[in-house]
Design goal:
Elements lengths: L27 H31 L3 H8 L6 H25 L7 H28 L22 H9 L2 H29 L3 H28 L1
Helix pairs in contact: 3-4, 3-6, 5-6, 6-7
Length: 229
């Protein structure tokens, strides 16, 4: 090139003349992925929290079901009624079995009444037992000697049960009717208390049923006693 010639212009580089870009490889690629994913991970707890709050207000609450299933929502009055009435009913069934024993020589009328009482109260024992199991509560509480501590007021003493077991004929009928009337009255008293103090719908319904049926049976048994005189 001579001194008079103008200098050559620099060549302009265009995008087309650049070598094609390649995706990052090696350690550079994971670094970029981490930069893209990190913000999404940071937002994840907020999203989950929002979803959880929405479910608590807009749908069913399984926590309440769990509480009911484990008995945390059952108050002590319901538990005491079920536990005490199980023992009370069991004694009534035992008294019915004594009337149905051939050795008692009970009248057909007393035997028929004993059959009804046993058929009525045996399923109620099973129902109350299932309640206590479902509530996670023991069916019976025992003292240090292993004896049942739950005994409702108005239940027969061991001496009265022994006396009844030794009675025969008309003497058995009279004693059985007198003791069963007293036994029914204590059940009605306990059921009336459960209706006032209890909070479980099933307990209240059973208490109503006990009051209605045993009041009618008291009237029937009192009529049989009056007829003996």
């Amino acid at each position: 090139m001579s001194c008079g010639d103008s200098p050559p212009r620099p060549r302009r580089t265009t995008r087309a003349s650049l070598p094609p870009s390649r995706p990052p490889s090696g350690p550079e690629r994971p670094m970029r992925l981490r930069r893209l994913i990190a913000p999404a991970i940071a937002l994840l707890p907020l999203v989950l929290s929002a979803c959880s709050g929405h479910g608590a207000h807009g749908g069913a609450q399984p926590a309440a079901t769990t509480e009911t299933a484990t008995g945390l929502g059952i108050d002590d009055d319901n538990v005491a009624f079920a536990r005490g009435m199980i023992g009370h009913h069991q004694q009534a069934v035992e008294m019915a079995d004594l009337a149905l024993s051939p050795s008692a020589k009970a009248s057909p009328t007393v035997r028929a009444l004993a059959t009804r009482i046993k058929a009525e109260q045996s399923p109620e024992i099973e129902q109350m037992t299932q309640w206590l199991v479902g509530w996670g509560r023991p069916v019976a509480l025992a003292d240090h000697d292993g004896h049942d501590m739950v005994k409702m007021t108005g239940m027969m003493t061991d001496e009265e049960m022994t006396q009844l077991a030794g009675a025969k004929g008309v003497g058995f009928d009279t004693l059985w009717l007198s003791l069963m009337i007293e036994h029914h009255r204590s059940a009605i008293e306990a059921a009336s208390t459960a209706k006032t103090a209890g909070s479980d719908a099933g307990v209240i319904a059973l208490a109503d049923r006990i009051i209605t049926s045993q009041q009618a049976e008291i009237a029937e048994m009192q009529g049989l006693l009056d007829g003996q005189g």
